[in-house]
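Allow me, if you will, to draw on your knowledge of protein folds for a short while. I have a record of one protein: its chain in single-letter code and its fold written as discrete structure tokens. Kindly check, if you would, that the fold set down in the tokens agrees with what the sequence suggests. Thank you for your consideration; the sequence and its tokens are set out here:
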Amino acid sequence: MDDQSQYLYEYQLIADGNARRVFSLLDPSFEASVRLILLSNGEQVFVQELIPDVGDFSEDELAALAEELSTLRNNGPKPEWDKMRGVLLTRLQEKYISQKFLAITSPAIPVADGMLFIVTLLSAHALGPVELLRDKDAEPVPVEFPKTLPYATLLQFIQQCVSDFHRRISLQESVLMPRDPNELIRSGGRLLMWRAILQAKPGTGEMALFDDCDALATVTYERKGLHSRLVLCRPDDSRLKYRYRLAQPVELSSRRAARKILETAKESDFCVTDAHLLYGLADIDWDQRKADPALYFVEFEGGAHWTFRRKDLDLMRVDAGRPTMPRAPLSVQQFIYDLRRRLPDIEPEVLKELFFHASLASRSGVGTIILISEGAIAEAKRLRSQSTPIVPSKIDSSVLSRLARIDGAILFDSHGVCHAFGVILDGSAKEGLGDPSRGSRFNSAVRYVESSEFNCMAVVISDDGIVNIIPEMPSVISRRALTQRIEQLSQLAHQESPSLMLFSRVIEWLDRRRFYLDQEACDVVNYCVAEINKRLEEAFRRNVEAFEPTPELDETYFVD
């Protein structure tokens, strides 16, 4: 391996690991990887994947791509690298969309043999509900704006890759140190708010909105946390109905003064800001929403928590300075699979009814517990002194919304019949059971479900909308995806020079999913790891804890 190849190999290995660390922090289900693609600078374009992976371009596909790019190479006196990048990106997206990955590539980077493109692949489902964010009436902008936190982080990651690449060349560094994933995600959060900034204050170069909001979330007023709302728009936006307008606008960066103004925003009112100044307090004429670009909002929720949203969609939640994915709604698939595991004889129609109740409760804005138990009749009788029993009956959504306001659980049986509300759950405290960082509602549900003599499941909705299913069970996964990873590992074990990058990627994927491997799969993985380590240089060998089967594993944890 020559010096350039060795350099590129080391670079891709570290960049690939960085990508997995960053995006798994956002969501453990996100998968990311890095590819390097080199376009030669000769008369005819030659396309080379420097470290190919399983499922990448075949030799025939690379040859066809080279032929397509060569036409651009020969159309002028110098290579049309930007156009080549566009064609390359199109072919990458066509290639990987079938594998459910989004592909994005860096600008062309000059190297000795031509131009290098750094390609990052990210799970397509990480993009989230992008279609909901398209505005046909929005003002055109000269740059691409990220619409979700993962995509904003992806753009920042690519930029950081290019910067690191140039830094290594200029400083001739032999080792590229891994980047802090949390800081990269913070930079993604800042970028995500950029469109809101430009929409509220066109032409500005300021990017401090994220940091200003994060700082304001921690400032107390008369020892109280901040519960308030900002609307980001121009101060003369026709949708605003001012309650009052400040004679002298206050800068967001003036923490104490801005905090005092924010304290006045209650119920339906919003503090108006152009991302730099606070202008006053206003209500919004929602009838005009369809005529103008959608508004952006920041909602401060106390305790250094705040949410950034557009229209009615949460884009990012920030907890103590760390951007996180917006709260996911209750998953119908996870709810149904979990309830079937706990109550195997439940009817499909009842599953739908109970999911509807749980989903409605999760959007009610109040904290409650939906408890589903095979022993609901006996439990309603046993707990009658600490609950409000009712004549067993089905209830509709309007009744459920009222019952959810009463402290305690709403008790259903496996037929979807309600037996009681306001149920104060009991249960024995055990060492290691529960979560001291969570409230009494969550922990009482954990203790009850753990000690109950009946099969049961609880859906716990906290006051701030966080939803937990108790007991917390592993999610369902694709058996096909698991089988594919084990096959990849087996192929590597039979290669004389196995790819360290692919080995790291596959074994990290499997390590996060140990629960799903039965005895046969564990034996195969353990054998393959030992064989691959024998073929790797000592410095690159992976110290992997032996895989062992999980007794609780059964077919209900697989979707195909």
Summary: The radius of gyration is 28 Å. The longest strand covers residues 240-251.
